[in-house]
Specification:
mainly beta, 6-stranded mixed beta sheet, 2 domains, 283 residues, disordered N terminus, Immunoglobulin-like
């Protein structure tokens, strides 16, 4: 029985000695340690970022070598090497990925800045920065990035007084002026009220106009899907129309498309019903 217990103890000790801890190689070698530094404008390990396509994010990293010198930095996007054209390493365009470290860099990195440009189209990606030493040991940090479609704005579109001879309809989807009676006129000028231009817009052809919630700030919108969130927080207009003047902002929905509209200019005439307003559409 004693022999059996002694044999099991030897096996246990052997297993413990041969099972390396994280970031430790065989023979007791210690691997590098990679960390991110805090600072304004820098992402940190484990962060989730929401960016536009082609946006650039930055990390400030520090790397401490283990038993052997540092060898190179690799940058991955969902497991694949990020193209060098989208990487800047400590102020210099990357020439390779992995990128070799030289001279004092092999002894350690401090506040080393990495800039990474996101893809051209909306995507979801995990970016990993891996620091590897001459012994093949490594450490990594990662950032989760969601890139989404940004807000797009139209050129100003003119809507004429509905009671006059010129087109008073607005095609929100194509951001263009159309006749008021057109099936693609999602909103139109309301026309005269008691002989004078009413300066109101009327919803039609399946469009719903809403007034933004208190505190809504158009200038703070960045992503297209934030418009639907703002619309859902808004309030329906009682009669499907809304009064406007310069800088009036309202929300609209047609089908699955959402819009923010802002009035840039209001031009009134005395008696010929050639009054008009200019609107910019955000979507």
């Amino acid at each position: 029985m004693k022999k059996i217990l002694l044999f099991l103890s030897v096996i246990a000790l052997t297993w413990t000695a041969c099972t390396p801890d994280d970031n430790t190689g065989g023979g007791g070698n210690n691997g590098p340690v990679l960390t991110t530094n805090s600072g304004i404008g820098f992402a940190k390990d484990g962060d989730t970022l929401r960016l536009l396509p082609k946006d650039t994010f930055r990390l400030s990293i520090s790397g401490v070598k283990g038993t052997t010198s540092l060898k190179h930095i690799s940058i991955f996007e969902n497991g694949a090497n990020v193209p060098v054209a989208r990487i800047n390493l400590d102020g210099t365009a990357a020439a390779a990925n992995p990128s070799l470290l030289f001279n004092e860099e092999k002894d350690g990195l401090s506040n080393y800045i990495i800039s990474i440009k996101t893809q051209d189209t909306p995507t979801v990606a995990t970016y990993k920065v891996v620091l590897t030493d001459e012994g093949g040991l490594s450490d990594e940090v990662s950032v989760y990035v969601i890139t989404k479609v940004g807000i797009r704005s139209s050129d100003p579109v003119i809507l004429y007084n509905y009671s006059g001879p010129n087109p008073g309809g607005l095609d929100l989807i194509n951001s263009k002026q159309v006749p008021s009676a057109s099936a693609s006129a999602h909103i139109r000028d309301f026309g005269n009220i008691s002989g004078s231009w009413g300066k109101r817009y009327f919803q039609q052809n399946g469009t719903q106009i809403r007034v933004p919630a208190a505190g809504f700030d158009l200038t703070k919108l960045k992503f297209s899907d934030e418009i639907s969130t703002a619309y859902n927080a808004g309030t329906d207009t009682p009669n499907g129309d809304i009064a406007f003047n310069v800088n009036t902002v309202f929300l609209a929905k047609n089908g699955n498309s959402y819009f923010v509209c802002k009035v840039l200019r209001v031009f009134e005439t005395a008696s010929d019903n050639l009054d008009y307003s200019e609107i910019v559409i955000y979507r």
